[in-house]
Structures are given as C-alpha cells and as structure tokens.
Design a protein that fits this description.
The complex is a heterodimer.
Chain A (H helix, E strand, L loop, with lengths): L3 E4 L2 E5 L4 E7 L4 E9 L6 E7 L4 E4 L2 E6 L4 E6 L8 E10 L3 E5 L3 E6 L1
Parallel strand pairs in A: 2-11
Antiparallel strand pairs in A: 1-3, 3-8, 4-5, 4-9, 6-7, 7-8, 9-10, 9-11
Chain B lengths: L4 E3 L2 E4 L5 E6 L6 E8 L3 E9 L2 E4 L8 E7 L2 E6 L8 E9 L2 E4 L3 E5 L1
Parallel strand pairs in B: 2-11
Antiparallel strand pairs in B: 1-3, 3-8, 4-5, 4-9, 5-6, 7-8, 9-10, 9-11
Classes of the chains: A mainly beta, B mainly beta.
C-alpha cells in the first residue's frame, strides 16, 4: 500500500551539530518528495523538496538526498541552531491521475544551545 | 490571498455530538486535503478532493466521518457522533502544483 515511514521520532542535538532524518516510501508512483517544518502551535510549511529525477538538492544549511532504487530519502541539517527546533515531516506525492500527498509520522528535533 | 482558512480554530464538544469543521482553500487551487494530526500518527490523510470531486477517502477512519466539497471554495469535514478518541488537530490543505498550503488547523477536543 501507500506508506511513508519516518525515523527517528525524536532527535536531540547540540547547537552546531548535524541532524539527519530518514524516510522510506512504498509506492513506486511517488515522484516528488517534500519536507515540511512545523513549529510549535503553527501549521506545517514547506522547507525543501526533491524530485524523483534528482539525487541531491541543497539550500544553505539543509540538504535532501534521494535513493530511488532503495526508496529512501533523507533530510540533512548542518550547523543546527535553536530555531531549527520543530517537528519535521517528510512526504511523498503519488501521481496517478491526480496527486496524492501523504506524510510520514514526523520527527521532533530539539537543538540545545 | 488570505491563505487557507479553517474554522473554528478550537472546538470543545461532548461525546455524541455532531462536529463540523470548515475549510476555504486558496482560490485557484484544484486539490484539497483533510489531515488529522496526533502525536502517535503524525499527519494522517483522511480524504482528498480534486476539482471538488472526492478522489480517495480510504483514510477516513469510520462511517462517523464524512466530508463534502460542494464548490471550489468550501469544504466540510463532519464527525457524527463524535467520540473522545477523535480529539486531535485537523488540518485542511490546498495544493498549488506540488506545494501544499495548510490552514491554521482546528483543535478538536471531545469530552
């Protein structure tokens, strides 16, 4: 079935360290993989995405990688800062006739000063 | 555009009562999604519409849940009768291309 698994569920790092969140997807029709950040009490917002024809994408301190063969994708945050503390969701868009957007279960990242 | 608008922001109701959550998507967005957020399950997709037509409601947990989209600017999610385990934050999101824009959510508490 259609499923996105995400781990870890919680992640604590020291300011300045790197953080990595990993996801796997099941449906081969998935062709787009966004990442959303949700700060406490707020709505999820898109921070970065990657398409299935790309292996890696970088935007300042965040990067995403995709391994289509293994159906794995990951979010990497370098030089973490306290304001990076939030819940991060990976997601996949499954395209048949319409686009179905499904999310992982989320990772609560805490960055300690 | 004011973005995706959901109402109410908070709802407290007694078990057994009917609850209706409302969503106004961003004008021009063709797809609308309803999600339920809990600590254990993250963002669960309940149902989504494309051009006002329900495409996939396989995530709707039970017959107590129903959703409608009578026109391009309005959707409702109804729970009847409500139960304490329905307590969660319910998000509506509309899709432009591949980016989803979320409403502020409705925090539902069923006591």
């Amino acid at each position: 079935g259609e499923n996105v698994e995400q781990h870890p569920s919680t992640l604590s790092v020291q300011e300045g360290d790197s953080a990595v969140i990993k996801c796997t997807y099941s449906d081969s029709a998935s062709n787009y993989f966004p990442w959303y950040k949700q700060e406490l009490g707020k709505r999820p917002q898109l921070i970065i995405d990657i398409r299935s024809n790309v292996g890696e994408k970088k935007d300042q301190r965040i990067a995403v990688t995709l391994n289509k063969t293994a159906k794995h994708f990951s979010l990497h945050i370098t030089e973490t800062q306290p304001e990076d503390s939030a819940v991060y969701f990976c997601a996949a868009i499954i395209s048949y006739n319409t686009d179905k957007l499904i999310f992982g279960t989320g990772t609560r990242l805490q960055v300690f000063p | 555009d004011a973005g995706v608008i959901q109402s109410p922001r908070h709802e407290v109701t007694e078990m057994g009562q009917e609850v209706t959550l409302r969503c106004k998507p961003i004008s021009g967005h063709n797809s609308l999604f309803w999600y339920r957020q809990t600590m254990m399950r993250g963002l669960e997709l309940l149902i989504y519409f494309n051009n006002n037509v329900p495409i996939d409601d396989s995530g709707m947990p039970e017959d107590r849940f129903s959703a409608k989209m009578p026109n391009a600017s309005f959707s409702t999610l109804k729970i009847q009768p409500s139960e304490p385990r329905d307590s969660a934050v319910y998000f509506c999101a509309s899709l432009e291309g591949t980016e989803a824009f979320f409403g502020q959510g409705t925090r539902l508490t069923v006591v």
